Structure of TCPR2 protein:
Amino acid sequence: MASVVSPVIFKEFCPLYYLLNAIPTKIQKGFRSIVVYLTALDTNGDYIAVGSSIGMLYLYCRHLNQMKKYNFEGKSESITFVKLLSCFDDLVAVGTASGRVAVFQLVSSLPGRNKQLRRFDVAGIHKSSITALAWSPNGMKLFSGDDRGKIVYSALDLDQGICNSSLVLEEPSSIVQLDYNQKVLLVSTLQRTLLFYTEEKSVKQVGTQPRK
C-alpha cells in the first residue's frame, strides 16, 4: 500500500526588517562612533534572541512584537553564544568572548509564571570565549563550553535564586557543539565527538579516528 504523502507548504523567506530596524547599526561612546555587529542568534516559537559585539542582548517577543534589551554589568564585550529555553519559565543563556556566562529568567504575563526579571551568573570558571551552550529540558541544568575545551555544568534553582557551577570535563581542543538529553551530554570538539554520561561521569568516544 502506498504511503500518504503530506502536502508541501511553500513559504517565502525575506529579511526580518522589523527586527533589524530595532537594533542600532552604530552607538556613540564618548567621541567615538562604534559599529554594532550581530554575533549570535537563537530562536524558538516565542522569541528571537540576537547577541551583539557591544555586549547587548536583543530579545524580540514574537507574540507582542516588542524588542527588549539586556546587558552584562560592567565592561561591554562581544556576545559569542545565546541559547533560549521555553519550559515553565522562559530562559535565555548568554556567553561572551571573555568567558562570562549569564542566565536571564524572563518576565511572563501568564498567571503563575515569573513576574520579575532575574539574572544568574556562572562565576569565574571559564577564562576564554564561550562557544556552546546546552539546556536540560526542565531548565535546571545548563552546560557551557569554551574554546579551550572546558565544559562547565551549572545547576539552577530558580525558586531559590541559586546557581552552582563546576568544571565537569576538559578537552584538549575547542568545544564546537553541546547537546543534552536523558543524563547524556553530546560533546563535539575540533578533534572528536563523545558522549559524557553525567551520572557515571564516564566518557564514550563516537568513532575511533580523530578529526583532521
